[in-house]
From TrEMBL:
Signal peptide: none annotated. The chain holds residues 483 to 760 of 760 of the full protein. Keywords: c-di-GMP. The keyword Amino-acid biosynthesis does not apply. This is cyclic-guanylate-specific phosphodiesterase. Residues 23-277 form the EAL domain. The keyword Translocase does not apply. One of its GO terms (molecular function) is cyclic-guanylate-specific phosphodiesterase activity. It comes from the Bacteria.
Amino acid sequence: RQPSRERRFAVFDPAMHARALAEMELERDLRRALERNEFLLYYQPIVSLADARITGFEALVRWQHPERGLVPPDHFIPLAEDTMLILEIGRFVMGEACSQAIKWAERFPNPPKINVNLSGRQFVNSRMAEDTSELVRQFACPTSLINLEITESAILTDTDQALAGLEKLHAQGFELSMDDFGTGYSSLSYLHQFPFDNIKIDRSFVEPLVREPRTAAIVTAIIRLAEILNKKVVAEGIETPEHLTVLQQLGCTYGQGYLFSRPVDASTAEEMLTKSPW
Ligand code: C2E
Ligand code: CA
Ligand code: CA
Ligand code: CA
């Protein structure tokens, strides 16, 4: 027999109560953080594996909390998504990425692209493509400097709407990357349907690569597939020289990971650009 509504709610669960309170507090803090400009971007280089040249940066949001210090995105993006505050954070991230992209384009002859992560919540808006282009135009940023990273789960909710939006963005000159490739259920079907330029091999494939022949076989297949489809491959989470060697042997052209650099602030990223072989 189902417990009655009253009975279910009569049970007081202190742990659940504490969690709810913590979430409310976090939500309030997130709103305040937006008002007080406490978000900032860190940049992780994406390099050409053959010569370690920096071809771009992935922009990764951080929260500079007055007491808690630098808060990583995993601690606040999920709640920001639940409360839709992610839309405002997303606009901040895009604006900031655009201003940085332009600064570097003025300074460096072969400017790096900046990769911006899009949340699934941003796709719920049927004017997502228009809003994004408008924002980028306001910053006078050429769309060719921005690469949009999209995960499979981000386009899952309304695939048709996401497809229409991404086709518009692609037509406007944005590059598109399929993020965390291989971790979802329909990677191949989305790769086939959507106008992705890049495939980012998830770090869960890179880590076991050196000891598991099965993983090496899968990564090889992804790289060959990308070649045939004329897409660039970026391996995520390259942490050791061994990871790098194996990926190079398998023909992977681009990569990202702690071996090259952790995500760093804008001025450190700029310093790396001045030292990167062009
Ligand atoms: P992601 O898009 O898959 O980003 C890559 C994550 O892997 C980053 O974590 C990065 O610091 C980390 N990483 C890079 N190289 C290595 C490595 O060699 N080893 C290991 N173990 N990790 C590495 P981060 O910055 O904590 O971001 C976590 C996730 O938060 C991102 O995963 C992305 O899903 C989300 N995120 C970050 N910034 C944004 C944003 O501006 N908007 C949205 N919607 N999501 C964001
Ligand atoms: Ca990403
Ligand atoms: Ca990723
Ligand atoms: Ca991820």
